[in-house]
Every structure is written in C-alpha cells, then in structure tokens.
Design goal:
heterotrimer, B: alpha+beta, eight-stranded antiparallel β-sheet, three-stranded antiparallel β-sheet, 33% strand
Chain lengths: 104, 208, 79
Amino acid sequence: MEGHQRNLYLYDRFNARVAGVSRNDVQTLKFWAEDLGLTFPLFSNTVGHLGIFFGTLREGYPMFSRATVIIDKWGTIRYLKHGSPDYREILLQLKALHEEEKSR
Amino acid sequence: MSRSTLFRFLACALLFLSGCAVQQPQPADPLAALRTPAGTVVWQQEYEFVPPPAPWSLIQLDEDDYSVAFYHSCADRMPRVFPCESTMAYAEEPFGYSRVFEERQEEFFERFLWAARVNFEEPRLEKTTLFGKEALRAETVGHEPVLAQKVLVNVIFARRGERVVAFYFTQWRPEDRAFDRGHIDDFNQFAESFRFLGPSFYQRLTSD
Amino acid sequence: MHPTMKILSGTVATVLLAALLALPAAAAQERPDLSKGVGERAPIFAVATSQGTLADYDRDYYGKHHLVMTFVPAGFTPV
C-alpha cells in the first residue's frame, strides 16, 4: 500500500486511480488508511464477491489472497497478478495504457 | 533391514546432519568480485561507492527496505554490552511518500524502526547537499523504554530524479552507555562516495 | 458396549463420514467459477470505501480512469 501511495503522482500522470480491497468493514479500513497515511480509498468488500470475480478468494478461506488487477478505462481487465504488488510492473502497464489512450 | 540398506541409511543421515553442523565458510571479502581498480564497488550495475572500511561488513537480509547495507558490531570491544552495533544503508524507497524533504522526514520517522518500538526525540534538521543537489540531514535518538535501549539515527534525504532516496545510519546502545559518534564519519564518507551509474527506473519511465 | 449399540454407533459414524466427504463436492457445485481473467470485461460493482464514500465502478471509473486494485487479506497486514 505504501508503494501505491508513493507512486500516486505517477498514477495521476497516467490517468490511473488506485484502491486497496479487503473484506474488512469500513471502520477498520478507515483506521488502517489513517495509520499508513493513505489518501486513496480502500474498498470494503465484506461479502467478498470482488475476490470471487478476480480469483482471490479461495474456497473455504475467509480472506482474500494478495493480487493486483488493472481495469482499463474502457472496462476491460488488462493485468492480473497474484502475490504482493510489483509496483514497477504496474507503472509500466499504466504507462502503456496511457499511451494507448492518447492514440485512440 | 539388510546390512547394506542400514549402511546407506546411516550414511544419508550422517550427510544430512553434517550439513547442519558445518557452516559455509564466509568469503574473506564478499565484495571482491565487484571492486574496481579505483577502489570503488559497483553494486547491481546501478550504484558505485567506496564501501566503509573493516570491520564494517556487508549485510544482506531478505528485505526490500534498502538496496545495500553494512554492519559494525562492537561485541569484541565491549563484550558484555548489549545492544552494541551500528548499521548504514542506502535506500531507494525510504519510508514515507512526500517528495518534499521536510514532509518526508516526518512521515519517515512514523515508520522507521517501528518493529523496535522506539520513541524518537524531535529530529534536528540540517540542510546539506548531496549529488550536487539540495539534501536534508535529520538526526535523532530513539528510546526503547521497556528494554532501556537507545538508538542514534542519522538520515540523509537526497534526490534521485524527482524522487527522494535516503542514507540511513543507526547505532544501538544500552540507555546508560555513550554513543560512538566516530562511526558517523564512516557513514558520511560512504554517502559522499555514492554515485548513480545511470538514470533510475523512474527517470526512464518518465523520460518520454 | 452392547452389540446393538456397537452396530448403531458404527452406522452413525459411517453416515457422518459420508456427509463430511460429500461436503466439498456439494460446495463446489454451489460455487461455479465466476473468476475473470485478462482480456475479459470487468464486472460492474459498487462497494463502500474507507473514505466514507461509495465507489461505483460505472460512475467513478468507467470511461474516465484506469483502475488499479490491490487485494489484501486484511487491514494492518503488510503489502
């Protein structure tokens, strides 16, 4: 999450927005965002359907597994990687999307 | 079990146990292969610096909080003193987010050494230069009140492209012992010798 | 233990075991694979956020911004 916050100014240049997602309630996520000093939103998906959609909610396990997904502004999933976020790979992907956006 | 099977089993067990008992011998100079004729070290094809002199030694932990780090124990000089060690490191992504030095140091000390449970005194800030650009030095002491330990921290926030990078120095001592400020000279020499061999990932990302 | 009791308890255990074994299979039937991959259309969703707002994908991001989402097990876990 800190990596996302550090790169916010670059996401802005590439016309991207970022969010964290977990199954915590809004209040817990609010405290967590305050603790880390995050200025981007954390999505509270207590029901867990976002995890089911993106394959990060293993059956019989209560929490999401770590993964990062990028949806382009036209509504298509362009990147999906399990594990801790690879911030540099994310930036390269966003740069490519931004260039595509300029050429459309 | 036949005698030969038993023998093979025992041999395997012995081989396995010997792996536990015998430590891999430490290479005399882990930086040997990276040294240049000029006395500097080329690190990850990205940085060049003069490493601090012995007994400072390279440490490699499985962490991504820093890019390169060195460790200096004083267990030989003060055998019954704990904790007694100094570290220095270069970090490409220091804690915090802001690209403004004064804001960054505030955010930095919110997170730095958080697992050591220290309370930092208000840091003393000093404007300086590094890499020919403006930089900020912050010095403070952190106290661990329960274990009666303290840590001297000296951090130089510098700029690489538009991002903030940092050099860290820490020195741990029991609360009733004096700090050895001589180690900060080694730290300063390390930071001043530091060079970037090319543009960073972020500089390349935003160059076109 | 009385022989009848023995048989009975054995039957109960067998039934329980069968039920337990059948559970994962039944769960698998209840939850089809809904996951989407790269190249597919993203699902439409709206969720509450840490900022006290509602993040509505269609209203806030679709046609406006690329969206990066990082899934984490829980708040206060390192990522």
